[in-house]
Specification:
single chain; alpha+beta; 50s Ribosomal Protein L5, Chain: A; two-stranded antiparallel ribbon; 5 helices; 7 strands; globular
Length: about 130
């Protein structure tokens, strides 16, 4: 079971309720807390995230981002656009985006197997079932 950690700043120009909602739309099982800098939380499921990337047909892009963010054999880190997440969609972002991002760290002893499960390989746009 993976451990998913979420960190998201809230800027003065943003509505904290909308930022929280953005996180919850992609990670509805997350237990989210607030501090002076924004939100942080965790969950153990990537099911909704995985469902969204399939619906958006961005498995290859997601797989690439998860591999690029891999840190060692047990962790990957990626960043999501807050505004797009508020609409219930996945859009990856660079870490230093102007309005900040939703930073997601996923830890799992076999991170490669988790990546295969969350964002499986595709051939001609179709999932390769193993």
């Amino acid at each position: 079971m993976p451990t998913v950690s979420i960190v998201c700043p809230v800027y003065p120009s943003e509505d904290p309720d909308k930022v929280r909602s953005a996180i919850e739309k992609l990670f509805p099982d997350a237990v989210i807390e607030e501090d002076d800098d924004g939100f942080f939380g965790s969950c153990t499921s990537l099911d909704t995230f995985s469902h969204r990337i399939r619906k958006q047909k961005i498995l290859d892009a997601t797989r690439s981002v998860l591999y690029r963010g891999k840190k060692g054999s047990d962790r990957t880190v990626f960043h999501l656009n807050k505004q797009v997440a508020f609409m219930g969609k996945v859009s990856f972002s660079e870490p230093k985006a102007i309005l900040g991002t939703i930073k997601v760290t996923v830890e799992e002893p076999d991170i490669l197997a988790l990546i295969d499960k969350v964002a499986p390989e595709t051939v001609d746009g179709e999932e390769v079932l193993r």
